[in-house]
Amino acid sequence: MPVRTAAERGNPAVLEQIGNRIAALQRVLKEKDMDAALIYDHENLIYFTGAVDLEGSVLCIPASGEAELLCPAMEARHIRESTGVKTVTPYDFPCANESVSAAQWVASLGKKAPKVGFTRYFITLKDYLCLRQEVPEMQVCDLATDCYRIRSVKSGEEIARIRRAAEILGAGMEAAVRFVRPGVKEYEVLAEADYAMRKAGSQGASFRMQVLRHDRQMLMHPYAGDYVLGNDEPVVIHLGSSVDGYTAKMCRTVFLGAVPEETRKIYAALCEAQKAAVSVLKPGVLCGEVYDAAYGRLERLGYGGMWIPYAGYGVGIRQSEFYPVIEKGSKTPLLENMVIDLLLPTIYLPGFGGPRITDTILITAEGGEYLSNYSRGPIVKTF
After folding, report:
1. β-strand 36-39 against 115-118: which pairing, if any?
2. pLDDT tens-digit readout, 120-162
3. Which CATH topology does 156-381 take?
4. Residues paired with 364 in a beta bridge
5. Residue 273 to residue 293: CA distance in whole angstroms
6. Superfamily classification of domain 6-151
7. Mind listing the pLDDT tens digit for each residue in 297-309?
8. Cβ(362)–Cβ(318) under 8 Å?
9. Residue 158 burial by Cβ neighbours in a 10 Å radius (0-12, 13-18, 19+)
10. pTM for this one?
């Protein structure tokens, strides 16, 4: 039988908040004529349960009624004390696991062909096969964007965690800038930054952080590797930190020695574009208008056509959340207490492009507030 102790022993405000989040997802299920949602992924488990360290667990949310959190029996006591979900049901591993338990829960709904929603990137083949075996006519639906949308407006507690994570970034960037020089490897610079952030309270980055020499800066998803930095080149340093499940990120470019003038101009142009984008941030502004402000400044500076149609994403439990997306033509309005990053891309000019600047920014009633705070001017080191 489920043990229902969280409601009695939990913080009432936390329980209410978690209840409101689950209710928001249940409204989506009803709107889409779906029977249930299964939440397996770590990000959404944090959001919909309030616990930051769930492993081997799945949150089962019916369209109507009470959600149920399935978890390993050995962790049940801790989870009951740390989560805002009222009903926690343990399973005995290895006789059972989250895949079999979730499949049995779906079968218990008593529907021949239930419509079940998932966040599309976060279900394993094992989970899927167990579900298919137990409920072979199950219909699979996607809830990824809906979950990002529900998560997009942050509570005061969420903002406080992101703000603290953003403050920690300064210690990491300072350590990286102090250490970076010709002849060291990318990962050595990152090690210094990561150590400084860990000492300052970071619980780790939610993405593969970057320290990049110039010839690697226009790759799609590079990360700090076994590459030696040279003199007379820009070095991109992109850092992330997290506090109690919430993240922040910041990117800066360091000029080692005599960097080509065109590369310096590109970095200056990106700084101007970021200022232009931040200047229009306020509730009600469309994401496409923010993009246009940044791109318009770049176009006037002679860099039109050298930028991708994405300028930033939401920031929260994930470093790049897919609602809102600051992209060309987007009609998504910004709302107060959303958190975003600006700017995502560089100028794609062969031989000279690559520098970047990125900050984590809170949308307030008065406008955009930088949460990450480190010099946005040129950082130059000579040898």
Report:
1. parallel
2. 777 889 899 999 999 999 999 999 999 999 999 999 999 999 9
3. Creatine Amidinohydrolase (3.90.230)
4. 367
5. 7
6. Creatinase/prolidase N-terminal domain (3.40.350.10)
7. 999 999 999 999 9
8. no
9. buried
10. 0.94
